[in-house]
Fold this sequence. Notes:
The complex is a heterodimer of chains A (872) and B (194). Chain A has 872 residues and is mainly α. Chain A is 66% helix and 6% strand. Chain A contains 37 helices and nine strands. Chain B has one domain. Chain B is 74% helix and 0% strand. At the A-B interface, α1, α3, α4 and β2 of A face α2, α3, α4, α5 and α6 of B.
Amino acid sequence: MKIEVEQLFHELADLSPEARSNYFAEHEIDAETRREVEALLDFDSGASSFLLRDISIAANSALPQLQGKEWRCGPYRLLDLIGRGGMGAVYLAERADGEVTQRLAVKLLPPGAGDPQRKRFLQERQILASLAHPNIARMLDAGHLESGQPFLAMEYIEGKPIDIFCDGLSVRQKITLFLKVCAAVGYLHRNLIVHRDLKPSNILVTDEGEPKLLDFGIAKFLDVTTDSTATSMRMLTPDYASPEQVTGGRVTTATDIYSLGAVLYKLLTRKPVHEFEDHSPEAIAWVATSREVTRPSKWAPELKGDVECILLKALRKDPHERYATVEQFADDLLASLEFRTVRARSGNAWYRTRKFVRRYWVPVSAAALVIASLGVGLYIANRERLIAERRFQDVRQLANKLFDVDARVAELPGSTRARQLIVDTSLEYLRRLKPNIQGDSELALDLGNAYMRVARVQGVPIAPNLGQMDQAEQSLKIAQGLIESVLVSQPSNRTGILRAAQIAHDRMIVARLSGRPDDALALARKSAELVEKFHAQASDKPEMTAVLNTYLGVADQFRLEEQFDETLRLCRRGTEIARLFDSRSYAGDLLWVSAEAYLFRGELEQALKDIRESVRLLDLGSGDMGQTSIHNLGLALIKEGRILAQDGDISFGRSQEAVRCLERAFEIEDELVHKDPLDQSSRGRLAMAGISLADILRHSDAARALGIYEHTLRHLAEVKNNSSFLLYEVSALAGSSYPLRHLGRPAEARKRLDAAFERLRQLKIAERVEVSEVRTAICALADHEAETSNVPQAIEIYEGLFKQIEAEPEKSLGDAVVVSNIWAPLATLYRRNRQFDLASALEAKRLSLWRHWDQKLPNNVFVLRQIAAASK
Amino acid sequence: MSCDVDITELLQRVHAGDQRALDTVIPLVYDELKKLSAAHLRREGKARPLDTTALVHEAFLRLAQGQAPSYQNRSHFYGIASRLMRQILVDLARARSREKRSALKEVPLADIPDLGRQPNESVLVIEEALNRLARTDPLKVQLIEMRYFGGMTAEESATALAISPHVVRRELRVAQAWLHKEVAGEDRSRTAIS
């Protein structure tokens, strides 16, 4: 086209025919140019519609040409494109081999995808292959095309997006449906998968009302089908994306919790959490991070109260402030549902509401911190896991990595649920690895270590644990087998020796708390022998911690078995090592044990000196052991209290000072239990402090003592299947019978005693009078009979108890106390029953026993007090 | 920048009829073809629903290998999509035309009614005219592609090519008039021959 022609065309195009003629008349334009321009002007009108028509007709003709073709993907015939995106295209497909008629969804990696995309696609297939949950779309098949393009075949979900399905349902029906979605997401999280793209279009509900979560790969593609605001750009749906996603922050399980909250918000209010006026990334980020969530009750007033609070908690900007787990979120939703039915029936609504509100308004910042770190860990773990499934070496590293996560988690309160997650996952990996050992000693050591650490989280009560002692013992036995298999061929393997010492130590703790003292002592000897052998070569700090833990536990076991020389020897060695490594906490703990040993030998001054030093060291702050040190401070305070005064046991008898120590311990433990209701070890110490405190107070303040027993019993009732907790219960039940009688409620007291014996029968130790709790219960029963005017019965019980006891009161101060504690009330009872001879004889025996001890322990406060009492 | 060069080179090859180059580029744009195809019919005001899935299949599946080049922005993307749409429509029209010619051999001449040019062949005539135009005025060809094969507005084309919308409208107006004239002239000459 000539330039002049074009220029003329533009000048003339909008002029009338007359004006055009005038133009040509006024300007000198050659004939050919004029002809060309006029020809163009002739075709100006209608040019546009001509082109549109002809090209549309061509497009229309082209389509049927393509429709006859059959599109195949492996054994599947592709029927219709149902979604597409950067990660691939999803087709509705059917089997093409005619074997069976089956509709499914086939997802293909887009051709030309780069390596990272391909890798992700393969990873996604791997993740899906490992998932099996009724509310997650299943993977059915996977393969490659000849071109090398990978595909996967999935269950085809014929359903509606959950928000559309929910139209017209009641709040209750919506929440019930949503709980199934929570179950699926919880399952993902337990499998260390963060969905990261939860939104209604990814949650389809079948005609049967089953929600199905689509995997995050497909999920991305399906967003074209429903929510138009979600699809304008290839980015996150701002309606359901968490603030941290919008701002490019760290994605954790808390991210999914936010998205779940946003989905539920939409279901219940039909509104998105935020209205975005401006869809620029900056505007979205600002709204997501800064604008307050509109209260759901503004849109749906019936949500005011429980459901609103739950939603707002799930939708907190700060991931740490959201629900720590999907299960907690679901629990609260379920409670809100159950609460309504309960309220309708019981009329006790106010209490329940208050209790409920308190439950989710409890500050959980520390717990959230744990979950945050866990979330990152899980995300990393997830990536690791995918590789791991191909190569077990990686699984092995992963097992250790999980424990690194656990080590961080363990030191913080509120972490129990997170740890359960770690335990479950770890065990799964370990089970998978175990068949691969076959003479690989390194692997055997690693696995042994891993099983031991799992056991500790499950229920070895030396740190916060899940209270599953039986499972813990099973894990320890597996660990022991693994380590011993190494020591058989390499008897001087250092790691093997240390692990064996640790495992023997842990089994010892479990045996002791399961009421098997002989096993415990044997294991203590084994552990001591091993750890002393190891000490000779000890070199680094983690090892030192393991060594000191073992010293501490074993020394304590010897103390319990009244092997005091052994105890004090191990305490001294342990304290030396602790000082060497500047470990206040271990020194404090070992001093606790030696104080206890001194106490049992009646060396009260020495005991009080050690325990006060121990309290001082542990009270200096978290120090090198973090949370554990708080736990042990509680324990040391309990001990200080007991040294100062303990009913019927070796002590100074300084009740007021004792009460102060025990009250402080009780408060510390109560707070810890409040922070993490699932932490059993704090609950155990709470019980110890409570029982000791009430045992003292019941002599002076029956009502307050009863209150503390009750408080303790309530806490104990929340733990099931833990034998040491059953023993605490026995003590508290038996102890509470005294104030109950004192307050004129003898029938209730009797019931408590029956309950105590019921627990002992449950533990199959009702006859085992060497267990102090058994003696406590028997004495309490005898005292009950005595105080309810059934003196002969009381005498019979005490006599029976005495006969059963195999004590050496001249040799053991503890035994002397036990015997004396029977003789004293028995003598009183004989006297009441007018058996004066028997009474006098017993009183004389008792006095002579304590005179014997006065010679052994001259000027001992406790012994002198006993002599004074016996002389009355 | 290397991306840009790759695309330009690729488009030149596509334009030259290199099937493999086309195969490489189409996956990049398959997801928009459906929309473009539908856009045509909306403009025509046709109410008949059109299943454009197959077109997308064609674009997506026949073209597997190769490293997909990335496009710079949305407008650039539509530009590429427009060219591909043109390429696909022309390829398919040629295939139809071949089938028809081979079918004609079987039919006695007398039985063929003189209907002039089949409307669906007009895209081939347009293609020939565009190819002629491209020799002297590639910008106009690109604008025609964007407007009519890609369904882009003047503003979108202006953004894609970094020129003013005013220039786009001017260029388009003259280009489409010229095309109209050329295609009509082709018809006239055919009629004259027959």
